[in-house]
Amino acid sequence: MATLAAEPLTAEPLTAETYPPPLTEGEQDGLVQAIKDWSMGNGLAVRPPPAVIPVDADPAGIAAINAPVTLFPSPFPRRCFDQAKAVQPTYNELYASVSRDEEFLGQMVKEVLDGDDFIRNLWQTHLRVKEEGYTQPLSLGLFRSDYMVHRDGSTSPPSLQAKQVEFNTIASSFGGLSSFTSQLHSFLASTEYPLLSRPMDVGALDLPECRPVEGLAAGIEAAFHAYAASELGHPTCVVFLVQSEERNVFDQRHLEYQIVKSSPTIPVFRLPFADILTHTSVAETAKRQLLYRLPRNPTRVLEVAVVYMRAGYGPGDYPDRDAWEARYQLERSAAIKCPTVLTQLAGTKKVQQVLAAPKVLARFIDDETTSAGELWKTFTNIYPMDRSDAGLEARKKALDAELCQAYVLKPQREGGGNNIYRGAIPDFLRSVPEEHWGSYILMELIVPPPVSNLILRNGRVERGGVICELGVYGTCLWNQGTGEVLRNEEAGYLLRTKGDKSEEGGVAAGYGCMDSCALV
Ligand code: ADP
Ligand code: MG
Ligand code: MG
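A: This is the predicted complex of the input protein with magnesium ion.
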């Protein structure tokens, strides 16, 4: 590795004292009204949780509400923003490469499967398909790499770095809503902000372009076009695999609408994960095409070119053996999967931990390049919880009432709400059989600089300190067999913001809200 040492970036002043500007009650109400209308007018929306609109108040299921959103774009250091965007193609390449390394992934799985049936079942699914042989060499990744700004106070002046929280290889969400959040803040900057009694220098607001809808849809379209024409004479299609009770449906619909807008000839369907076996089958041919029978008209059969998974990332979608059979059916079919089981496994926290250890990157990418050096700078310290020397050291930290305050303990799960933070770690660990500790990783907490904002959630405004998490999307299409990369693009950003008293930041999980960047 050429440049191991992180180059300190100079801290830009973050104006937590002056931004966002103070609002009179009337101004706040006006801003809220503008946001409520713009959001519903433009699809910056979610289906309501029952606590907000009870099911019996909306038996037809026609209600939608504003997605939680900040009243102002949050200041975000330009250097960190540029750093995260620039490194995305290298991350895409890295994770495509990890997905192809079955031996490496097998080792990772072995280290966590004692305490983790979900990961064990995923691996079994891969092994079953491997036995008869994969028929689709192409693999699609719609990735999202998440970061927080790390403020290193040990240097003078303090330095700022984008540090990776995690890398998502399955169901990376909020690209749809993110495009619209950015547009909302731009709209407010040209209509509402200039009218405030403490007018902001709106001209100085640097709101970067944000187009993940186009970027992510283009990734799916690229895979669709790379799928060989049907030999069976059926029309080909894209299937969005979704959860039945999904509330974040418009986020997904925006991608679907974009595909239909830019490629009107591509049919796109939504299929609940629980209905895979009912509505799809695998052709008894050498190629094993995935056939989709339209539920509303079962005589219409389409061949699935791309399966885009917005479900299947956690144990909740696999209540029984049939659910695993359904995943197996997709995996053994000729459809291009986004993601394959192997790519899903590449996105585990265990893999992230191992990649952050010295010398491991070289196995996957040319680690002498500047871009690999840039990627390395985004890593933070992550430790195994196994019986290795590093693992035993980490166990000491995790069990110590003082030391544990600087860490988060993570299982191999996605979707938010699964981590254990700071002082809760020792008791949690003691409640888990020691032979299962290896299925967790211990990560240093990233401490971002203070930012404040106002959050509009379920019609109420909360004001205070917030923590921002940047996500950068990437699309990658590659050949699992040859390693040839057919597409590798950075695909826009997401900013999610949570109150600084909240540990978790997932918007869907109810903790965070949508935001956009005002670069400083
Ligand atoms: P998931 O796959 O469930 O989203 P994450 O690793 O993203 O898991 O963790 C969930 C949330 O926990 C993040 O969005 C972030 O708010 C917080 N978090 C995770 N790791 C860290 C960290 N190292 N430092 C600070 N906050 C973290
Ligand atoms: Mg995740
Ligand atoms: Mg996350």
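The mean pLDDT is 93. DSSP finds 15 helices and 21 strands in the chain.
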